[in-house]
Amino acid sequence: MFERSRRRLAYWFTLSMGSILILFAFTIYHRQVKEQMGQFDARIYAQTQKIASLTSYQPQEKSWQIDTENVSLPNRETFPSESKIIYIRWYDSQKRLLEFMGNCPHQQSLVTPGWQTLEYNCNLNGTTRPKHLRKLTLPLKYEQSLVGYLQVAVSLEPLQDSLVRSRLFLCLGVPITLGFTGIVGWILGGLAMQPVRRSYEQLQRFTADASHELRAPVAAILSNAQVGLLAPIEDNQQPRQRLSNIVTQSKSMSVLIANLLFLARHEGKLNPQDITKTDIVELLNSLAKEYKTGAAAKGLEFHLDLPTTPLEVCSDRELLGQAIRNLLDNAVKYTPSGGMVVLELTVKPRRILIKVKDTGRGIPASDLPHIFERFYRVDKARTRETGGFGLGLAIAQQIIQAHDGKITVESEVERGTKFQICLPR
Which residues pair with 89 in a beta bridge? Predict the structure, then answer.
């Protein structure tokens, strides 16, 4: 499933990026053609203007005589190869050919002022081959009178060679870039799927753990019910004992279901309607009153270290109290008689720190990274005795994170544990 999703992500990423890349390449090539053609036309126009300035005009009866002797070209029949000029033609005002220079024989050409691109068959070194020419026809005027036309045709080979190189670069570059894009898409798809894979694995593990935890009390309830039904009619003690066990197991299962529902319902952000200004000092005092009696009954010392002035924070009072209760439950539950539990509040400029410390048996270093995972228990045998399911710390962490806070733990085996809640003010 994940590999298929990864392939689809890579495919759509490559397709979208490839479409953008092809469009970008086409736009760049189109702009390059336009710019190079503009520069090419500017050079032709400058050459044509220069040739026109070197041409002299002499009036005759009803016509003008065009003198091209001043046109300084090495040879009237063959132009320098670097000039790329194929031919120059002069026409009179009636568009009749008067003079001709170039490599090609005299041929009548369409005389239309402006630019033209055409294919022209030229005989070069005894061979005839088509050439693409860029032709400019410029009207020649003398004192506002039309004298004739000057026609200059230049080979497009330099421009075509440049554009061929550009097309070759794009034809090679675009597929290579698409290949790299596909590889990057595959890598990014894998990175994007990792949180989904972890969430899926956590969901599977959570479902398996929840099924396992629910299976045990259900099996116990069924077992006690069956044994109670098999008891003799005159035996009143055994059915009552079995019913008591059923009630105990049902309560345990009810607590587990309530915790599971709590985790599911309070996933993510808090409900804005439940957020109020809470006096954290008053909340901790009320919690301390709840746990002092239980701690004293177990032979524990309970110390409270709080500021004397009220301190308000924006929170969901019930949820925040639940998170601190879970920490106090663990501290009282796993601290042996004669130990000590401390509830402390420290105020910082932009945050508050709530600390729950105990002198219990501590948590091994290998277990510390996992204690906030759902259904994780450090000592499964001891936890079974105390009736825990390994959800208390997961619930506390979820609540604190929903308040944009952070919960951390420090512990040493046989020396105690310290949980710290950091909340923004």
Answer: 100, 151
Give the whole-angstrom CA distance, residue 281 versus residue 287. Answer: 10
Phi, psi of 410 (to 5 degrees): -130, 135
Report the number of distinct structural domains present in the chain.
2
End-of-domain residue from the set 133, 164, 195: 164
Residues 158 and 280 in one domain: no
Contact call for residues 56 and 67 (beta carbons, < 8 A): yes
- Quick check: 147 and 64 in contact, CB under 8 A? yes
Distances (CA, A) of 393 to 212, 288, 359: 19, 19, 18
Domain hosting 338: range is: 269-424
Retrieve residue 72's tokens: 């300084």
**H or E stretch including 151?**
strand 145-155
Residue with tokens 């396992």: 212
For the chain, counts of helices (H) and of strands (E): 7, 14
Domain boundary pick from 126, 149, 164: 164
Phi-psi region of 387 (alpha: psi -120 to 50; beta: other; left: phi over 0): left
116 vs 137: CA distance, rounded Å? 8
Q: Is the pTM of this model over 0.85?
A: no
Residue scoring higher pLDDT (198 or 36): 36
Is the pLDDT confidence value at 258 over 50?
yes
pLDDT in tens, 172-203: 888 888 888 888 888 887 787 777 777 777 67
